[in-house]
């Protein structure tokens, strides 16, 4: 395991998958290929990228593998996987299971990716429209379906999430061991990125403790939300892998070397392109951090002869974001306490509430610790911190319709910066304070255990809620208890049901005005002229 970690094995494989995601999106759309040709595009792209990525040499020797970090990611992987295992009940004769959480949306994406005749992909609810969505990260799931046809799409969702979760978690272990210099810092960083589920539950009553509680800002009329990494990995893997593509690009750009420098430029550019097409929201903060290295990026990338070729490739699938319904776009964040009847006056008066409560609840107060040591940070790290704070401040003003993707997904990268800087600088700073100094006694161990328990309550509550949802969504639960199926299971194939794609097929055409909000969000209107 030390060998795998020191060689960045999982990070390399993950980067190859992401590059293959992007190249598959470009090639399949460019030549309007049949959907089954994904096998002949993805696999060669993956192995070609892998061949190049294993030519990179690591600049720095890794820190010895910390067993507690490995235990942490192992436990996280188990928790992330368990709720979706109810899909396996479909294999029991006479039983069935509906999808849980947002996986009805994953099914909607995978149906045209696997069942459509060719590209461009039609909308799953009405084939007279086109699919408009950042679906690049779903290609491994679609690939599983083509390689093992007897699997259901729900089975491939299990496998696809499992693949990404393994790569993400083990890559986090690799990166932490490369860039951090103490076991304590590594453990803190890994814990914040995995088992910490946010402190949203503090704003809930005990009766609503088990559930998806990131909507606590509604008590302040808020449509701005920030998602804990654990919650993000479980609910929205497409957005999470997008932000992590940026992390991998940083890793290969600054901490590896290769004999042919142009290969590094191509690799980093392809990871950026993949990030954009996996989730445009997750790369919103990228320009702020890129500005810190503007001179290096200008010299190495903007003046490189390969840049125009990658940009042209990026333009090929750009049409999937065009000609969409006009009701989806950026709006003003509503977070405020109603002190008066004037919106902007309430926003100004509510500023201290937002900038106090949100960092405490969503980020465990990490930004406040960093604020204390800002002047002591190295110049580049201080600029990273400032960039992260700027983007966080922007989320107080800007949101994206009702889905809040600007803050929920866009904050992944700034949040990782907060966590990493805290592990790198904040943990040693706190360690020099007498109150926080670790001692091998029962008192110190009790404090650490208590803090860990407080910080994982949200995670356990999230998984408890998802498991309860899963049991409500499978027939075997009611048959075992000899109870009648509830209405939502009897109408699992309903034309207007959230679970209507559970049959894993295109539905009969539904007019736009009859579609629910989330279906309208992935609609692209029919071809008009040159832009498809």
The overall average pLDDT, rounded, is 88
Radius of gyration: 23 Å
Regarding quaternary structure, what we see is: single chain
The coarse silhouette is: globular
Helicity level, as a percent range? 55-70%
Continuous helix count:
24
Distance between the termini: 48 Å
Classification by helices and strands: mainly alpha
State the strand order across the main sheet: 2-3-7
Secondary structure: number of strands: 7
Q: Main beta sheet, described?
A: 3 strands, antiparallel
Stretches where pLDDT is under 50 for at least 5 consecutive residues are 205-209
How much of the sequence lies in strands comes to: under 5%
Q: How do you describe this structure in short?
A:
The chain is mainly alpha-helical and 532 residues long. The protein is built from 24 helices and 7 strands. The protein has helices at 2-6, 9-30, 38-53, 67-81, 103-115, 139-147, 153-179, 183-193, 229-235, 237-254, 261-278, 286-292, 294-302, 307-315, 343-349, 351-363, 366-372, 379-394, 405-408, 412-431, 442-472, 475-480, 487-490, 517-521; strands at residues 57-58, 122-123, 126-131, 256-257, 330-332, 398-400, 523-524.
């Amino acid at each position: 395991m030390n060998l795998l970690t020191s060689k960045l094995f999982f990070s390399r494989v993950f980067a190859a998958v992401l590059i293959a995601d992007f190249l598959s999106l470009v090639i399949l759309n460019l030549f309007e290929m049949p959907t089954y040709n994904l096998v002949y595009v993805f696999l060669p792209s993956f192995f070609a990228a892998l061949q190049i990525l294993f030519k990179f040499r690591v600049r720095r020797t890794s820190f010895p593998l910390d067993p507690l970090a490995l235990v942490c990611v192992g436990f996280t992987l188990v928790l992330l996987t368990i709720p979706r295992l109810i899909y396996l009940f479909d294999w029991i004769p006479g039983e069935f299971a509906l999808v849980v959480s947002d996986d009805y949306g994953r099914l909607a994406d995978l149906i045209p990716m696997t069942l459509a005749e060719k590209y461009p992909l039609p909308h799953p609810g009405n084939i007279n429209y086109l699919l408009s969505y950042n679906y690049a990260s779903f290609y491994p799931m679609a690939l599983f379906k083509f390689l093992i046809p007897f699997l259901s799409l729900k089975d491939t969702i299990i496998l696809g999430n499992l693949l990404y979760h393994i790569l993400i978690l083990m890559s986090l272990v690799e990166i932490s061991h490369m860039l951090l210099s103490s076991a304590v810092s590594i453990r803190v960083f890994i814990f914040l990125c995995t088992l910490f589920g946010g402190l949203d539950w503090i704003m809930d009553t005990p009766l609503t403790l088990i559930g998806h509680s990131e909507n606590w800002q509604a008590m302040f009329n808020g449509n701005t939300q920030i998602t804990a990494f654990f919650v993000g990995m479980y609910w929205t893997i497409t957005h999470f892998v997008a932000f992590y593509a940026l992390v991998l690009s940083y890793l290969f750009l600054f901490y590896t070397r290769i004999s042919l420098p142009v290969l590094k430029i191509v690799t980093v550019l392809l990871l950026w392109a993949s990030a954009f097409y996996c989730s445009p929201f997750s790369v919103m903060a990228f320009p702020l951090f890129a500005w810190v290295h503007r001179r290096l990026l200008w010299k190495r990338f903007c003046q490189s002869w390969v840049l125009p070729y990658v940009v042209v490739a990026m333009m090929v699938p750009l049409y999937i974001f065009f000609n969409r319904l006009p009701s989806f776009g950026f709006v003003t964040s509503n977070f405020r306490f109603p002190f008066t009847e004037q919106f902007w006056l309430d926003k100004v008066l509510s500023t201290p509430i937002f900038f106090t409560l949100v960092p405490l609840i969503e980020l465990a107060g990490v930004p406040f610790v960093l604020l204390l040591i800002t002047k002591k940070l190295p110049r580049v790290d201080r600029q990273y911190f400032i960039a992260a704070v700027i983007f966080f401040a922007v989320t107080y003003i800007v949101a994206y319709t009702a889905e809040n993707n600007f803050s929920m997904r866009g904050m992944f990268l700034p949040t990782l910066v907060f966590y990493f800087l805290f592990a790198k600088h904040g943990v040693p700073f706190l360690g020099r304070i007498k109150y926080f100094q670790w001692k091998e006694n029962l008192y110190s161990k009790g404090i650490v255990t208590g803090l860990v328990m407080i910080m994982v309550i949200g995670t356990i509550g999230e998984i408890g809620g998802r498991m309860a949802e899963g049991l409500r969504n499978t027939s075997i639960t009611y048959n075992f208890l000899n109870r009648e199926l509830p209405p939502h299971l009897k109408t699992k194939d309903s034309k207007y049901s959230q679970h209507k794609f559970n049959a894993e097929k295109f539905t009969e055409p539904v007019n736009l005005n009859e579609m629910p909000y989330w279906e309208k969000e992935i609609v692209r209107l029919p071809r008009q002229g040159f832009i498809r």
